[in-house]
């Protein structure tokens, strides 16, 4: 084992010494590699940075995953459970009729919000994006607009008030709620209160004339035998690729929907177009690079036939000579790659600084990950090694006696 390592290190030392001796030629070969690698890294960095930025914006904004049911229907718990269990579904919760999703919020007689939206939520709600969304019956999460009007903070209390007309008499139902969180303004811009689904269902029962003790309404019909039903659902897909199939499943049930599928498809189209452009340019550059390297290595072998024959005369076997040439190619490939990586770093800084602050382009990103860089390095070394093998097949045919003919 140690003998093999000694031979390997000897070949590496000879290869480096030879490259340094012909450093002008070595510099030209490394520069030709750098001239191909640097633009490809910049081009891929632009593709990855721009597309990743667009995809991140799609994923981080939960509204892009939302599928809105436009028409009201009559859905039972079995339908809702089936919807929740579909692999494309990220979050689904039943909603009541639109008229029953509004109520007044009161902090005191001077601070109130009329007809605020009452929205059901539970654990895993992507719009809220907080573990506090697992609410109990008397807890509420306020939107920033509602909290501002009510001048409330987490830990404060408010009253939820609804009215109904039962048998010609106007009745008012109230329930005290504890504020557990306030949403960021970017997540929901309208005055709203996010409550447990049981509370929203209680509002519908109250307005439909049923007894609702939680709201202080002890008159009306009994709701004990009432089968829960939903008019629609708050629905979010698991990811952007799941929006289209989930919306298609709903449309097959004749449920009208709306989503941001057009924006999602636009990002996918941009990714496809940039991928095609990058693939064509990378393929053309790779072919040119391989042709250039093959010519350079074959010319170098012809120039060093005597030196290679001398190595054979000194006892180097055919495999050792081939390994010697491949090691030289790997050294040159590494030098070309890291030089190209340095040029990419300079270009990346220029792109991000000059275009990132432009009002026309907005936030601009040119970036590759560590794994992208590692894959690019392996590809550069693989191409260099394969090209060197082409030259090595020619070099191993050189006979040791050729070194004696010129003495």
TrEMBL record:
GO terms for cellular component: plasma membrane protein complex. GO terms for biological process: lipoprotein localization to outer membrane. The keyword Flavoprotein does not apply. Pfam families: FtsX. It comes from the Bacteria. InterPro entries: ABC3_permease_C, Lipoprotein-release_system. Residues 280-400 form the ABC3 transporter permease C-terminal domain. The chain crosses the membrane at residues 273-301, 322-350, 370-396. It is a multi-pass membrane protein. Belongs to the ABC-4 integral membrane protein family. LolC/E subfamily. This is Putative ABC transporter permease. It comes from Pseudomonas saudimassiliensis.
